[in-house]
Amino acid sequence: xxxxxxxxxxxxxxxxxxxxxxxxxxxxxxxxxxxxxxxxxxxxxxxxxxxxxxxxxxxxxxxxxxxxxxxxxxxxxxxxxxxxxxxxxxxxxxxxxxxxxxxxxxxxxxxxxxxxxxxxxxxxxxxxxxxxxxxxxxxxxxxxxxxxxxxxxxxxxxxxxxxx
Length: 164
Prior knowledge:
Elements: H1 13-41, H2 45-52, H3 58-72, H4 77-102, E1 104-107, E2 114-119, E3 126-130, H5 133-161
């Protein structure tokens, strides 16, 4: 039975499009992390993907990369620090993405009136956040930059651990 209810984001294609792009960029970001994981292990892509994507969330994936970093790159402080910075940026990106993807969207009358309602896990209180469309553009840009930075880091890790 159709009750006629339509999610409010359906009336705001500018927001819906940007959220779709964020979702696609997130997939690219996750794949870049998998490439870093692959380069750390020195295995082919199929093996790396079989392990990496069996981990069911981004936090677990970041944690395995951090553990490998400690185990494999203990003597290269500069490279370990780069990996740590990338993982911190990745954690921050995951928090932003989760707030956008899992928040309950609501809209006012204006074109830039979008916002989310989410449950603060620490306090158990609902929290409303106003989100301008340009903030979604910034998230898209940040994910693209992070993905490229992870890719470059993966190459550096591979060249350090497994020089040709």
